[in-house]
Amino acid sequence: YGMARELSVILKKPLKTLDSYLKYDKGSPKGKLKVSIKADKDCPQFSGCVVTDVKVTESPQWMKSRLQAAGVRPINNLVDITNYVMLELGAPMHAFDRQSLGSDELIIRRAKKGEILETLDHKKRKLTEEDVLVCNGKNEPMSMAGVMGGLNSEVSDDTTELVIEAANWNPVMIRKMSTRHGLRSDASQRFEKGLDPKLTEQAVARALVLLKETCPNAKLVSPVTTEGTWKTPKISLTVDPDIMNS
Questions:
Q1: Contact yes or no for 134/106 (Cβ under 8 A)
Q2: How far apart are CA 145 and CA 52, in angstroms?
Q3: How far apart are CA 174 and CA 183, in angstroms?
Q4: Tens digit of pLDDT for each residue in 173-219?
Q5: What 8-state DSSP symbol labels residue 222?
Q6: Residues contacting residue 121 through CB under 8 Å, at least 6 positions apart
Q7: Are 64 and 49 contacting, i.e. CB atoms less than 8 angstroms apart?
Q8: DSSP H helical segments within the chain, as ranges?
Q9: What tens digit of pLDDT does each residue of 115-155 get?
Q10: Rounded to two decimals, what is the model's pTM?
Q11: Which among 6, 105, 191, 202 is least surrounded, fewest beta carbons within 10 Å?
């Protein structure tokens, strides 16, 4: 979409809005995803929701072809959707196995010195107080924020329930954390450049639309929850008409 935005300016063509791509069935969810941000400066905004009745299958061919054209190996529909949204909107996101989390609660906090998290690449990471984590309701580490998920909440072939999240992270924190652990992922490479916080809600919405296409029986059991201190900034510019017209 970022490329489309650039080309619309260069070619002087109208840019399609994302609205039609973000319309998902909100239903009447009765549950709630609780998000507690204890590291405000590291996480300006965090969005997420809970989905049940999902089924791990092969992604449709159009999605696999587009992922492969972008250099991403298709895995399954649930993982592919998160990668597809990252490429389409420029917004990295993550899906946790809900049952592995143990509750519908996520806590964003700084790591404790010496804390250990085994990441998806099967490597045990010894964390520092400068690292940021996404934890479950028991405050157990589930993911290295914006860098890589933990093996303990990985989506598997048996996954039937998801907690989907998209967050905005401090780019300096992400760059330092990924460098410190020698772990530069597709997500960290985008986060370290700085992203628009409003992308978090758009990414979750887009993922829900794509999820419904591959899992028609999927149910949204919690509304999309967004927490954080970020607010849309008011921007004003002062220009000199004489300079503009010279």
A1: yes
A2: 24
A3: 10
A4: 999 999 999 999 999 999 999 999 999 999 999 999 999 999 999 99
A5: S
A6: 148, 183
A7: no
A8: 2-10, 61-69, 77-89, 98-101, 171-180, 186-191, 199-214, 241-245
A9: 999 999 999 999 999 999 999 999 999 999 999 999 999 99
A10: 0.91
A11: 6
